[in-house]
Design goal:
133 residues, alpha+beta, 5-stranded antiparallel sheet, 1 helix, 9 strands, 20% helix
């Protein structure tokens, strides 16, 4: 009788452990966002990827804005600056990243208006994205 009771206890423990592991996986490994983005001032940033994998960063002028200037990208292991040019609807500055990042990595894009000599006149918007699961 003790042998049967031991087998039943073992089977119950195994079942409880399996159900617990399945529940933990279900609640902690939900689907991650595929893309993130946002705008601030005249600067918009789109982060393309899946989960913590960042495929590409794209900076554009905000809808309806146009200016002469440049954009800067920043984040852990990410640094880039566009050419100084006239920015308008349809203009894009993109950087291929192609690797995973840590959870809650902050990636920012900042826009600057330049004068005719190329010197920075003023900041025109900074937007950041928190890449997370």
């Amino acid at each position: 009788m003790n042998h049967i009771a031991a087998k039943i206890r073992w089977a119950l423990r195994a079942a409880v452990a399996t159900v617990g592991a399945a529940a933990m996986f279900t609640f902690t490994a939900g689907p991650a966002s595929a893309n993130w983005g946002g705008c601030a001032g005249q600067t918009c940033l789109e982060v393309e990827g899946s989960g913590l994998y960042v495929a590409r960063l794209t900076v554009t002028p905000a809808p309806g804005s146009q200016f002469y200037g440049h954009f800067r990208l920043s984040g852990p292991g990410i640094s880039g600056q566009s050419a100084v040019q006239h920015w308008h609807k349809g203009s894009r500055y993109g950087v291929a990243v192609g690797h995973g990042v840590n959870n809650h990595t902050k990636i920012c894009a900042e826009g600057f208006e330049n004068d005719s000599s190329g010197a920075v006149k003023r900041a025109i918007g900074k937007t950041c994205v928190d890449v997370h699961m």
